[in-house]
Structure formats: structure tokens, C-alpha cells
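Lab notebook page, bench 4
Experiment: in silico fold of construct C2
Operator: M.H.
Input chain length: 246 residues
Purpose: comparison with the prior construct
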Amino acid sequence: MHSTPYELGGKKIMVTGATSGIGEVIAQLLRRCGAQVLAIGQNRNKLDQLVTLHGCVALALDVADSAAVEKELASSHGLDGLVNCSGISILESCLALNADSFDRVMAVNARGAAMVSRYVAQHMIAERRQGSIVNVSSQASLVALEDHLAYCASKAALDAITRAMCLELGPLGIRVNSVNPTVTLTPMAAQAWGDPEKSGPVLQAIPLRRFARPEEVAWPVMFLLSAAASMISGVCLPVDGGYTCR
């Protein structure tokens, strides 16, 4: 196991959205940092890979299915932390907004995170475990993006959830924070942003003049989960190369 700047040995962390993109990298880095990982996602092949290649424990679950979340998480004991990374995006302009699309995005990105956090926090409190919850939000909660109304709304809701949980769970020893990344070059995003005509104007608006790599989002998550961030709670941390500084 490679050395890492954050020690999470002996900690058990749940990661939703662990079968793709940022969530998959977070699960892998957590293992490098010595944590036990309960990986949650819907892609069973990817879950199997996380078990076989990285030693995670896997659970197939749709976080938007509140009944399934309650049933499956009822026995998820021994947790020291949670990373809410499940997320979807359905791009529509405000004039073409579809109610079903809006509800689906909110159900995954906001309600799903809130409900998973509820059950994890209940177990942590019952077991007198202090720890950390990190919500993977977006720069879309901080600035307006064209054709992203539902996504912007869902991530703004997630940041509000972060603050509300910070207030209520802090006295019980549970810290709650968000990270808010810019475009992050997961394989899917790299393909979507490969056209210079599309990416050029966005890159010009980022002072660092580049998009984020998945590990550049995952490392701040490691920090917020670790004892190095023991006095940090209620923060929405931009990981955006300066995009939202304007």
C-alpha cells in the first residue's frame, strides 16, 4: 500500500456512487488510506471489481429508492463516515424543463443523499461513533450554468442539506461538509468535453486553465474525512481551479 498524507486506518466509510467517476476513485483512495470501504452503486460488474481488485465490501442499491435505502441500511453498523457521491444530470433549459426529469435529479442528488445520511448518522449516534460525512456537490450550486436548472437546484439543495446536518449533527460529534468540483475528467466527461469549441470558453473562465482530475477531487474528500479536518464542518469547498472566484 502506497503512503498517503491522510491516515484512515481502521475507519469504515460508506461511499455511494462508487461504481463510476469520482466515487470510484474515492473508494480506491480510501482503501489506499487504510479505510474499510462499503461501496454502494448500481453497476454490479463495477461493484465486483471493487471487491476483487480493491478489497471493498459492496452493496447494490439505488439511493433514490427510499424504501430500499431504509431496508438495506438498517444493518449497516460500525460506520465512521459517509461520502455521498451518487449523482445524475439531465440537461434541459428552463423553457424545456420536464417535471419528471426534475424530480429524478432531485431524488438522486438531494433526497438520496439526505436519506442515506439519515440512516448512517442514526447508526453512528447509537454506537457513539464520531465521524464525518462528505457530500460531493458541484460548482453548479454556486453559479448558474446554462441548461443545468435541475442540476443546479439539486446541488444547491445538497449544500443546504450539508449546512442543516452540520448544525444538527455537530453536537453529536459528526462533521458534515461538501466539496464542489468543476468539470472533472472522468472517462465520460473527457468524451463530453473533448470538443475544443465546447471546452474552450469554460477553460478560459477557470484561472488554472484546466479541468480537474478525479483524484484532485478525491484527495480533498480524504482530508475532510480525516482527523486533519477535525475542526472543519459546514463548509462547501470549491475544487474548481478558481472558477467561482469571479
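Observations: The chain has eight helices and seven strands. The radius of gyration is 17 Å.
Next step: discuss at group meeting.
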